[in-house]
Design brief:
heterodimer, A: mainly alpha, 3 domains, two-stranded antiparallel sheet, B: alpha+beta, Penicillin-binding protein 2a (Domain 2), Ribosomal Protein L30, Chain: A, Beta-lactamase, six-stranded mixed sheet, five-stranded antiparallel sheet, 21 helices, 18% strand, elongated
C-alpha cells in the first residue's frame, strides 16, 4: 500500500496540478468579484457565493485526493457499471427533477442540488475508453462504429431530454477523440465545411460584391468548394498535375469573369462559378471512369454535396427556421443588433470586458460586474469578471493557462501505453477544449450563446466536481503508465 | 500491448486547433479591450449616474438691499415609465396628488408622445407634474415607496417680492436649442435668464452646478457613490445682485405711468447708476413663473401695447426739444454762437419757404431764455449757422463734426448698459444725407435735426444720459443697473467717466437755461415748480403722426445733482402736460425720500390720467 502510494505521488504530473491549482485560485477570485454584494463583504461566509465556492473547491480537492488513492484498474473494471448507472441516473432525472428555468437537470438532495449531466461526461469517457480498448474493436467495422455512436449519443439524447441542449452539445467533442483514433479526417473536415458554408452563406448571402449583382456569400463559398476539391485531389490521389488542372483553370475563369464584372459590365459572377463547378465535377467523373479510382467519385460527391448544402442551408434558414431562431442566428452573425432581447447578454458582456482595458480595473473594482449588468455573470459569463477586473493581460494569461493545460494533457495522452489511457486522455482534452471554445467565445460574442460553464471558473459545485473527477481519473491513470 | 503510431500525427492537428482558438480569442480581446474606447464609454453610461446638484440662483436686491427676487422650492414629480409596476394603484396615486384619473392618463400619453416629448425613453426619468408646492407634494412623499418608478425632484423657482420692474428684472425659462449649442454648461431642461438682468448677469446668477457620481445597477437601483465621492463636486450657489434701482422710485414711476405708454429713466449722475427704469405698460413678473408661464407669456406677446418690450432701451423716439440742449452745446463749442448771441423769433422760423412754428414769447432771445422757453427759431438758426458755417470746408465736414459731438454725448450708438436688447438710435452722418439727397443738401434741408426731429432717434436711456451729462457738466459714466455683485467686480467701464469734449463753461450756460425753464415766467417747466428743490429741466414735444409725444429731461438739485431724469409719454401732447409734472414728482420722491402731501395728490391725479390710444379694439 505504502509503496504504491509513494509511486503515485512521484509519478503524478505535477505540472497539470500546478496549472489547475492556479486556475482554481483565479476562478475563486473571479467568483468573489462577480458575486460581490455591497452588503456582504466576507468572502468566507457560507451564505455568500464566494464562501460556497470556497467549500466546493475544498471538496473537489478531497475528491481529487480520493481518486488518486484508488487503484487505477478500478476504472477499467467499473467503466461499464459507472456508465450504465449514470445513464440510468440521467434517465430518472428527466422525470424527477424539478423545473428550473425550463430545464429538468437538477437532482435536489436535501440542501444541495447536483446536475448529473456534469458527471456523465467522465462516465462516457470511461466507457468510450474501455470499449475502444477492447480486442474486438476496429474503427473500420461498421458494427463498432454504431456502438461508438450509441455510447456518445445516448447521454446526449438523455440530456436533450432534460432540456439542457447546451450540455448535450458537449458530447460532440468526443468526435475529436474518434478522429485521433482513426475516424476519417474527411468527417471532421466535412463538419468544418458545413459550419463554414452555413455561416458565410447566411452572413454574406445578401451582401453584394462591389455594390454589383454578385452575392459575396455564394461567390466565396463556391470558390472555396473548388479550392477544397483541388486540395482533396492533391491529398488523396497524389496526382499533382490533375490537382493543378482543377485549381488553375476554374480559378482563372472565375478571375477573368470577376474582372469583367467589376471593370466593364456588371453581372452575377456566381453563374460563371456554376458553370465552372459543373465542369469540375464532370472532370472528376471523367477521371473516376478513366482512371478507375473510386476516390474521384468521393471527391465529386463532396463537391456536389457541398453545393447542395449551401443552397439547402439557405432554404432551411429562410423558410424552415422560426423567426425567433433566425434572429438568434443573425445576432450571433452580427447581422442584427437586438440589445434588449437575444443580444443583451452578449452586448453587456462585451461592454464589461471591453471596459477592462489593458490592465483591468482591479480586483472588486469592476463596475459592470459588481452592478450585475451581465446576467449569469458568476456562472456562464464568469469570464467577464476576468476581462473587466484583470484586463487584457489577465484575460490573456487565463487563456494561455488553458492552452498550456490542453497541450500538456495532449502530451500526457500521447504517452499512455494503453488505448484505454489514450482515449480517456483525449476525451479530457476534447471536453476541456470544447468548453473553453464555446464558453469564452460566447462571452466574447464570437460563438453562439450556449450555456455551458468555464472549467474551474464558473460558480457551481456540480460542474467543478465533474471536471475534477474527469481530470483526476486521467491523472491517476497517467501516474500508473 | 503495442503502441499504435498510425494516427499519432493527428495530435498536432488537435493541438493546432487549441492554439488557433486561443490565438483568435486573444486577438478578439485585443480588439475589445485595447483597440477601442467605445466599450469604456458604454460601461460608463451603464453604471454611472451623474446626479446634478442644482445651485440656488442668486437673489436680486434693490439699492437699499430690499429683496426683489428670491428663490422658492418647488417640486417636480418624475417617472421612469419602464420601472412602473403593472399593478400600480392609479387611484391612490391620483388621490394623493389631487389629480383626476383623466389627467393621469393624459399626462402619461403626453409623455410617451414623441412629437410632444422628442427625448422620450422609457428608461429615463420623465417629468410627470411640475412645480408643485411643498404641501402638495408631502402626502405623496410619504407614499412614494408604493409607487415604484415615481420620484420627487426638487428645483427652485423665482419669486418676486413686488409687482415692479418686470422688464428690467426679466425672467428665466428653459434653455433653447441655441443656448445648448452656445454653452456646454447647459443641459436640456436647465433654466437660463431670458430677459433683463436675469439674462445679462446669467453667468453670475446661475452659480455652478455640482455633480454626484452614483453607481446604478442593472435594475436601475442606485448602489451608492462612486469611489466614495472622490470625483463629486458641490454646487456653488449663484451670486446675489444689488441693483442701483430705488424700489420706491420705481414703484412711483410705474404708478404715474399707469394707463399711458412710455418710459421713465432716472440716473444718478455721479455714478451712472440707473435709479429707475420704467417702461409702460408694465407687467407683474410673478405671472411668468410657474405652471401658467407659457399661457401668460403668450398673452403678453400678443398684447399690441408690447408690455414685454423695455421701451427705455429698446424704444427709439425723436428726442424733440430735449435735444436742443445737445445742439446748443455743440454750437457753443464750435464758436457758432456765444451765450450772448440772440436771434429774433416771431412765432416761428421762416426761411426760404421753410416754416417751423414757435410759441409766443418775447423776442429777441439769447441762449439762456431760448432754452428756458424752448425757442425753435433760436436753435434752427444756430444749427443752420453750424452746418453752413464757412469755418468748415463743406457740409460733409460740418455734419461730421456735429455728429461726432452728438456721439460723444452718447447718441447714435449703444451706450453699453448692462441689459440685453439695447438699441442704438440714429444720428445721421454725411454719407446718409448724401445718399438721401443725392449730394444736394445744406443746413436748411436738414433743419428738423435742430429740434430733435427729422432723422434723429434716441432711446429714453440716451436722453436721460444727456441730462446726466449736463448735471455732471461735461461727462457721464456708462449707465448701468447693477450696483454690486456679491463677491465679484463690476465691469470697470461702469466706473470710468466718459468726457464729451465740450468745455465745462458751456455746460454752465445750459444748466442756467434749464433752470430758467423752471423759474422764468415763460419757462416751459413752470408746471413742475411745486417743490422746494432747485430743479433744472428741458421739455420736449416731439411731433408725431398722431398727437405729439410729451417729453421731459431734467436733473436736480441744480448744484450737486443727485438725479437726472427723462420722462417720455407717447402721445402725451405738450412736454409740460405729462413730462414735467411726472419728472418733478419723481425727482422730489428721490431727493426727499417721499412726496409731500400736495405732491401725493398730484401723483394720484396723474396716475388716474388715461391717455386713450384708440387701438384697444385692434
Amino acid at each position: 500500500m505504502d509503496i504504491r502510494n509513494v509511486s503515485v505521488w512521484s509519478k503524478l504530473d505535477w505540472w497539470t496540478i500546478a496549472i489547475v491549482a492556479t486556475l482554481l485560485v483565479m476562478g475563486w477570485f473571479s467568483v468573489c468579484g462577480a458575486s460581490y454584494d455591497f452588503d456582504k463583504t466576507n468572502f468566507f461566509q457560507f451564505s455568500t457565493r464566494a464562501g460556497k465556492e470556497f467549500i466546493w473547491i475544498l471538496c473537489s480537492c478531497a475528491i481529487g485526493f480520493i481518486i488518486l488513492m484508488l487503484d487505477d484498474s478500478l476504472f477499467d473494471i467499473f467503466a461499464f457499471l459507472i456508465y450504465a448507472g449514470m445513464m440510468g441516473l440521467l434517465f430518472i432525472t428527466i422525470f424527477i427533477a424539478p423545473d428550473v428555468k425550463g430545464s429538468h437537470s437538477w437532482l435536489v438532495l436535501g440542501p444541495i442540488s447536483i446536475q448529473p449531466a456534469e458527471f456523465a461526461k467522465f462516465a462516457t469517457a470511461l466507457m468510450l475508453a474501455k470499449y475502444m480498448n477492447s480486442y474486438s474493436f476496429n474503427i473500420k467495422h461498421n458494427n463498432c462504429r454504431i456502438t461508438l455512436a450509441a455510447i456518445i449519443l445516448t447521454p446526449m439524447l438523455l440530456i436533450i431530454g432534460e432540456r439542457e441542449t447546451g450540455s448535450a452539445l458537449v458530447y460532440l467533442a468526443f468526435f475529436l477523440v474518434l478522429y485521433r483514433e482513426g475516424m476519417p479526417g474527411a468527417v471532421l473536415y466535412g463538419g468544418f465545411c458545413a459550419i463554414l458554408y452555413f455561416i458565410v452563406g447566411i452572413r454574406f448571402g445578401s451582401v453584394m460584391m462591389n455594390d454589383g449583382t454578385t452575392p459575396i456569400g455564394e461567390f466565396v463559398v463556391l470558390l472555396f468548394i473548388i479550392v477544397s476539391t483541388a486540395c482533396m485531389v492533391y491529398v488523396y490521389t497524389k496526382q499533382h498535375e490533375k490537382a493543378r488542372n482543377i485549381a488553375i483553370f476554374p480559378i482563372l475563369v472565375i478571375a477573368i469573369a470577376y474582372a469583367i464584372s467589376s471593370l466593364f459590365i456588371s453581372f452575377n459572377v456566381v453563374y460563371v462559378e456554376w458553370v465552372v463547378c459543373i465542369g469540375t465535377i464532370g472532370y472528376l467523373i471523367f477521371l473516376w471512369i478513366y482512371d478507375r479510382k473510386i476516390v474521384y467519385m468521393w471527391i465529386a460527391i463532396f463537391a456536389i454535396g457541398s453545393i447542395g448544402f449551401l443552397y439547402s442551408s439557405n432554404y432551411v434558414f429562410n423558410n424552415i427556421l422560426e423567426p425567433h431562431q433566425q434572429v438568434r442566428i443573425k445576432v450571433v452573425l452580427g447581422m442584427e443588433e437586438d440589445l434588449t432581447g437575444a443580444g443583451y447578454n452578449v452586448n453587456q458582456s462585451k461592454i464589461a470586458i471591453g471596459s477592462g482595458g489593458i490592465l483591468g480595473k482591479g480586483f472588486l473594482k469592476g463596475t459592470q460586474t459588481k452592478l450585475k449588468y451581465v446576467p449569469e455573470q458568476d456562472t456562464d459569463f464568469i469570464f467577464c469578471t476576468v476581462g473587466e477586473e484583470q484586463g487584457f493581460i489577465g484575460s490573456s494569461i487565463v487563456l494561455l493557462l488553458f492552452l498550456i493545460l490542453i497541450l500538456r494533457l495532449i502530451h500526457l495522452a500521447e504517452r499512455q501505453s494503453t488505448v484505454f489511457g489514450r482515449v480517456y486522455g483525449y476525451s479530457v482534452v476534447s471536453i476541456f477544449l470544447f468548453h473553453i471554445f464555446i464558453n469564452i467565445g460566447m462571452v466574447l460574442g464570437v460563438t453562439p450563446v450556449i450555456g455551458i460553464p468555464l472549467p474551474f471558473f464558473s460558480y457551481g459545485g456540480s460542474s467543478l466536481w465533474g471536471f475534477t473527477i474527469l481530470l483526476f481519473i486521467f491523472l491517476r491513470i497517467d501516474a500508473n503508465r | 500491448m503495442s503502441k499504435d503510431y498510425t494516427f499519432e500525427k493527428r495530435r498536432l492537428v488537435i493541438g493546432s486547433i487549441a492554439i488557433l482558438v486561443v490565438l483568435i480569442y486573444i486577438f478578439r480581446l485585443l480588439s475589445l479591450q485595447v483597440m477601442t474606447d467605445d466599450y469604456k464609454r458604454y460601461a460608463a453610461n451603464n453604471a454611472f449616474v451623474n446626479q446634478i446638484q442644482y445651485p440656488a440662483r442668486g437673489s436680486i436686491l434693490d439699492r437699499h438691499r430690499q429683496l426683489l427676487v428670491y428663490n422658492q422650492l418647488a417640486f417636480d414629480i418624475t417617472v421612469v415609465p419602464h420601472d412602473m409596476e403593472d399593478d400600480l394603484d392609479t387611484l391612490d396615486l391620483c388621490n394623493t396628488l389631487g389629480i383626476s384619473k383623466e389627467i393621469f392618463i393624459q399626462r402619461m400619453t403626453d409623455i410617451q408622445d414623441l412629437d410632444k416629448n422628442p427625448g422620450y425613453s422609457k428608461y429615463t426619468s420623465q417629468v410627470f407634474l411640475t412645480q408643485l408646492s411643498d404641501e402638495e407634494v408631502s402626502p405623496f412623499r410619504e407614499k412614494l415607496f408604493k409607487f415604484r418608478g415615481f420620484n420627487i425632484q426638487q428645483r427652485s423657482i423665482r419669486q418676486y417680492a413686488y409687482d415692479a420692474g418686470g422688464q428690467i428684472l426679466g425672467d428665466i425659462g428653459e434653455v433653447s436649442p441655441a443656448n445648448l449649442e452656445d454653452d456646454s454648461y447647459y443641459t436640456r431642461g436647465d433654466y437660463i435668464g431670458k430677459q433683463g438682468v436675469e439674462k445679462s448677469y446669467e453667468k453670475f446668477l446661475r452659480g455652478e452646478k455640482g455633480v454626484k457620481i452614483l453607481l446604478r445597477d442593472a435594475h436601475g437601483r442606485i448602489k451608492g457613490s462612486y469611489q466614495n465621492g472622490k470625483y463629486d463636486h458641490r454646487a456653488v450657489p449663484g451670486r446675489n445682485l444689488v441693483l442701483s434701482i430705488d424700489l420706491k422710485l420705481q414703484k412711483l414711476g410705474e404708478r404715474l405711468m399707469k394707463n399711458k405708454i412710455g418710459s421713465i429713466v432716472a440716473i444718478e449722475p455721479s455714478t451712472g447708476e440707473i435709479l429707475c427704469m420704467i417702461s409702460a405698460p408694465s407687467y407683474n413678473p410673478q405671472i411668468l413663473v410657474g405652471r401658467m408661464r407659457g399661457k401668460n407669456q403668450h398673452a403678453l406677446q400678443k398684447d399690441w401695447r408690447k408690455p414685454l418690450l423695455n421701451r427705455s432701451i429698446m424704444g427709439v423716439y425723436p428726442p424733440g426739444s430735449t435735444f436742443k440742449a445737445a445742439q446748443a452745446l455743440a454750437c457753443l463749442q464750435e464758436d457758432i454762437i456765444t451765450p450772448g448771441t440772440s436771434f429774433a423769433c416771431h412765432h416761428g422760423f421762416f426761411y426760404a419757404g421753410r416754416h417751423l412754428g414757435c410759441h409766443g414769447h418775447s423776442s429777441p432771445l439769447s441762449l439762456i431764455p431760448a432754452i428756458g422757453t424752448s425757442c425753435n427759431t433760436y436753435f434752427c438758426m444756430s444749427f443752420k449757422a453750424f452746418i453752413d458755417s464757412r469755418k468748415f470746408r463743406s457740409h460733409d465736414e460740418s455734419i461730421t463734426i456735429w455728429k461726432n459731438h452728438m456721439v460723444n454725448m452718447g447718441f447714435g450708438y449703444k451706450l453699453g448698459v448692462d441689459l440685453p436688447g439695447e438699441k442704438r438710435g440714429m444720428i445721421p452722418n454725411a454719407k446718409y444725407y448724401d445718399k438721401a439727397y443725392r449730394g444736394h443738401w445744406n443746413g436748411l434741408t436738414i433743419i428738423s435735426d435742430a429740434i430733435g426731429q427729422g432723422e434723429i432717434l434716441a432711446t429714453p436711456l440716451q436722453i436721460a444720459n444727456l441730462a446726466s451729462t449736463i448735471a455732471n457738466r461735461g461727462y457721464f459714466i456708462t449707465p448701468h443697473i447693477v450696483r454690486h455683485i456679491q463677491g465679484a467686480q463690476l465691469d470697470p467701464k461702469y466706473y470710468k467717466p466718459r468726457y464729451t469734449g465740450i468745455d465745462k463753461k458751456y455746460y454752465m450756460d445750459i444748466v442756467r437755461g434749464m433752470r430758467n425753464a423752471f423759474t422764468a415766467n415763460q419757462g416751459t417747466c413752470k408746471s413742475g415748480n411745486f417743490t422746494n428743490i432747485e430743479m433744472c429741466g428741458k421739455t420736449g414735444t416731439a411731433q408725431n403722426h398722431g398727437i405729439d409725444h410729451s417729453a421731459f429731461m431734467g436733473f436736480a438739485p441744480m448744484n450737486k445733482p443727485q438725479i437726472a431724469i427723462l420722462v417720455y409719454v407717447e402721445n402725451g401732447g405738450w412736454g409740460a402736460d405729462f413730462g414735467v409734472p411726472i419728472g418733478a414728482l419723481m425727482m422730489e420722491q428721490f431727493i426727499n425720500g417721499k412726496l409731500s402731501e400736495s405732491s401725493e395728490k398730484r401723483a394720484e391725479a396723474m396716475s388716474n390720467r388715461v391717455i386713450s390710444y384708440g387701438y384697444q379694439e385692434r
